[in-house]
Each structure stands twice: as structure tokens, then as C-alpha cells.
Amino acid sequence: MVKSSVYKLFSTMIIWLPLLFDNVPSFLFARGAVITSSELSVPEATGSRDIMNPAVSVVNINNMAYWIAKDGAGTTQGSPNGQQADYPIFTGGFIYEDGMLWGVKSNQYSAAEPVRVGGSTYSQGMKAGNVRYDGSGNVIGSDDPTKHHVWRVRTDWNTADLTRDASNFYGYSSPTAASAQEIQNVKDQYEYDWNNWRADLDAPYDDVDNNGSYDPTVDVPGYPGAEPTVWTISNDVPTIVMLMGTF
Ligand SMILES: [Ca+2]
Description:
4-stranded antiparallel sheet; 5-stranded antiparallel sheet; binds calcium ion
């Protein structure tokens, strides 16, 4: 039993992938394992979840739940235990809070201040959204953060029993606590993210027909080979560009 639990723990793989210094996608993915944790019986809601546009979400297909905010920050707000990662899922905390912090030294910065640092410490230096460019490739600002959320897919979203997933997403302490409506909400959110996967912003996907573009009817969103993927995109460009201008 112990060996099995350890396997499940390490079968969850967490990837933080800074592709560009100013435009940082991160994604979490995992290979699933059958849940065998004891059934806890005390439901505990931690508040509402914005279903179609969630500000926090969770990778939870195996025996660990790991939460992330849409700006890429660690968060303690999803778990009923008030911690970022719970292991075993639905029980005590495993990681209080973590995140990615990076530094860049470049001769493009002033000689007096050649280093820039960004990311997450206890506070977060990023906001959700992608960097926006003009037709010549110059940075003109960043996208509206309200148009972004934590994107989440799982390959079996349309057939799986999502009771346990929804119970975890809604912050209950019991894997069977979610209502039928809450389960449907989670399914709807999976469907939306599957059909609107941000491949245009370089969210990873398996290009099944190998044509170099994302087609939700053929391709598989998420990190290739992974069952669930949780993906966010964030930036530290101050100016937010709206459709009609900037503010
Ligand atoms: Ca394709």
C-alpha cells in the first residue's frame, strides 16, 4: 500500500515552462491512477467557484491535488485544508505554497541594473494573460486579464465519473460531496476548455493529424500523453491593451 501511494505521488508531474521572459505559460499534467484513499464523510464547501472562467483550478486525477491561480501563482485558496497541494487528496496539506521565480541577466538592460527578476515568491509579480504585439512584432502591452482563466482539460472528460473531481474542485473534504449541478458545471468547463483550447497561445496539444494547427475534433489538447493538463499564461507587461485601445 505504501509503495502504491508513493508511485501515485510521483506519477504526478509538474512542469513550469518559461518560454519567454515576458510571456510565461505554465502547465501541469499527470498520468492518472485509481483513487484508493479512504472515503471521508464530512463535506466542507470553501465557497463558490467561477466555473467557466475559474481564477483557480486544480490537477487532481490521481491521489494528489495541486492548485494554481490563473496568474501562475501558487494559491492556498482552493484546498479545504488551506494549502496548495494535498496528499493524499482530500486530506492534509502536502505543500503549503510554491511557485516559480526566475532571474535574467542581459546586456539589453542598463549596465547599472543588468538583472531582472520575476515570478512568484510569497507574492506574485505576474498577471494573467498573454503579451500583445503590433504587426511588426513590437510589444504594445498585455491582454485583458479578465479574459483569461486557469485552463483545464482531461482526455476522458466526456465519459468519466466526475463526482470526485468536482468534489475536489469545489473544495469539499469528501470525494462524493459534489451535487449533480456542480458535477455538470465541471463537465461543462472541461468541454469549454477542450473546444476553446488556447493552442493559439502555444498551449500544448497532441497534433494528431500532424497539420500544425489545433482542431478540437481531431487533436488532443494538453501535454501529449498526459491525461489531465492544467495550463495558465501570464506576463509582467504593465499596459493592458483592450479592443478599443489601452488603459
Ligand atoms: Ca491538427
